[in-house]
Amino acid sequence: MNKKIFTITILFPIILLISCQKRSLPFILVHAEKLLMINPDSAYHLLNRVENQMKEEPESAQMYYQLILFRARDLCYIPHKNSFIISRVIDYYHKKEDDEHLMQAYYCMGCIYRDWHDAPHALSYYQRALDISGKSNNYSIIARIYNQIGQLEFDGYGHELAMSSFKKAFVYFKRSNDSLTIPYAIVDIGKTYEMQNNDKMALIYYLWGYNIAKKQINKSRMAAISLDLAALYMNLNMHEKARYFLNSSFNSHAIKYSQNWASYYINKGMLYSSDNKLDSAVYFFKHGASIGDTFSKEASYNALYQIYKYRSNMSEALKYSELYNKMMDINRDNSHAKEMIRMQSLYNYDRTERKNQQLFIDNQRKERTIAELVALIFILFVIILFYRQRNIKKRNQRNKSISELTKQYKESQEFIDKNNNEIELLKRQLVENMNNMTESHIAALEMNNAKALNSIQDNERIWKSFRRSQIYFTIHSMVEVGDLKCSYSELDDYLKKLKDTIDLYFDHFGQRLLAYYPLITSTEMTLCYLIKAEVQLINMSVFLSLSKQSITNIRSRMNKKCFEGAKTTKEFDLFIHDF
Q1: DSSP 8-state class, residue 483
Q2: pLDDT tens track for 319-334
Q3: Using CA atoms, how far apart are residues 226 and 346, in angstroms rounded to an integer?
Q4: What is the DSSP string of 296-316?
Q5: Helix/strand/coil (H/E/C) assignment for every residue in 71-87
Q6: pLDDT beyond 90 at 12
Q7: Average of per-residue pLDDT values in the chain
Q8: Residues 550, 563: Cα–Cα separation, whole Å
């Protein structure tokens, strides 16, 4: 054995076990993790020895210990029975945002589901590990993740997918300098080519892996790969090559597993059968059947059946035919059971994914509802703000209207009568009391009266002139017994002319009304012009093609908008008439 391999695989674990007895637990954990890739059995025993001591350590050390212990158990092919501990490890490293150890924890959870034959969940956790592996330099773990994904894909999802994963695993094994595992990583690629019936490429990878193991003087790996090469050469009818590698695997004395010995005996039997040495073939086939699994037994019994049938030994042929059929039924049932487990696993996974998807949709719906409520509240706030500003504007318009009405009131006959009464009073006071009231004060009041009187007289002249206008006469004579005496197109022209005439006589009546009431509609504006023109309600209904009740409703609505219902309809009409 190569001195370097001997030191790494045998002497180093022994030295480490002795030195760790005098070291602290953190030191033991760090070196146990390094020992995993060299000798997992030694690492597992070392970690078991400090199990009781770990209970007194901080939570961080306990989680780290559980992570390494799980990996050691996995590398020693110890089945995993529950996921409770690894779930705690995942929660711990997730809260700590420690992606490096969280990646390993996800990998461990994937291995648990792998042992439970739940491929979809195993693949899900392996993928989670890869998703957070971007900044990791732990290429050994990443390589094993890809390798495990490849094994699952190889067994049930397609050889093309498995090929891609095995090649990625090989790349990361090379980056990690894991020379002991590289030959197996290469052989995995070769097996995938073989399953795709590409024996040429499979042979290239098998020989590549064999030569690397040979350079390492790793006889156990050489023996395992030799068996794969022997079987492949048998399929290629290259019996001499097959015999060479079978003898090579036997002479190495490094075949560890009974299944490998079964493969050796069956291939040996096939070689003797091809050389027509049937007694030797029978001997090796029987040995292969005695120690192999059901598939090895099926192949051995079929070969024995063919040999005894060839020899016309029908009793033995019948015996092995029955055994062959029995093994074939068992293997078919097992394959069917595995397929059912895989399908059930896929169904469970799909159902879980559907639930997760439904939960995601529900969360999105809730978020959308909250967003809509926020938007609705904002819109209501804007509407309230708008109406508040509108009410302020209406209040200002109302105050302006009151100011205008006050001004008109001062110029009215009532104002004149009040001034005359005050003049008479002052005159009596002048006569009776001989006070200091000057006649200039009286003259001023009389001048104001004269001014107001002139204003009223001017207004009356304007109205008199307007009532004598042609359009005023036309409008008032256009309806006879509730019927219109012209077409509606002509009516539109008359109404336009009426509006122009009123704007001319009454200082741009329409513009002033629009400034006072900006939200006025075209129908409301026309109605105001007809009120100004002193058109009767029944004629208005003909002009506007509306009922009298509809016109009354429009006037009431305008009254409510302009004065918040403070005036009666008649007072509103009077306001428009005198506006």
Answers
A1: E
A2: 888 888 888 888 787 7
A3: 36
A4: HHHHHHHHHHHHHHHTT-HHH
A5: HHHHHCCCCCCCCHHHH
A6: no
A7: 78
A8: 20
CB 317 within 8 A of CB 305: yes
- Mean per-residue pLDDT for 241-260? 67
Q: How far apart are CA 192 and CA 225, in angstroms?
A: 14
Q: What is the maximum alpha-carbon separation in the chain?
A: 169
- Identify the H or E element spanning 480: strand 479-480
CA atoms within 13 A on the CB side of 255: 22
Taking a C-beta distance cutoff of 8 angstroms, is the pair 38, 46 a contact?
A: no
Q: Are 301 and 290 in contact (CB under 8 A)?
A: no
The residue type at 431: V
Q: How far apart are CA 549 and CA 300, in angstroms?
A: 107
What does the block give as tokens for 232? 């492949």
Give the position of tokens 């029987």.
Answer: 286
**pLDDT digits over 185-204, tens only?**
999 999 899 888 898 899 89
Q: What is the pLDDT of residue 5?
A: 44
Task: Provide the token pair at 464.
Answer: 């008199």
| Residue with token string 């005439």 | 501
d(CA 181, CA 141) in angstroms, rounded, equals 12
The CA distance from 356 to 362, in Å, is 10
- What letter does residue 292 receive in the DSSP assignment? S
